Amino acid sequence: MWKPMLPTLVEEINKQKDWIYEIKYDGFRCGIEWTAEKITLWSRNGKDLTFQFPEIVSTCLILQKNIEKQLPIF
Q1: Model pTM?
Q2: Annotated catalytic sites, by residue?
């Protein structure tokens, strides 16, 4: 399973030209496993979050026909 990166708190923004940063808002950080047969959302610790976010699953299902050629088949 892929593990999202952990944010690192810093006091100052890095000024290097090729460096980017992301503001951390409170909320969920999750991954999605989206195949032609199944959509699963999971937490960084491997907990299934799929049923907590039915709106994400339903949106994926609406979009699936447009991207089905790019989805893995297992």
Answers
A1: 0.63
A2: 24
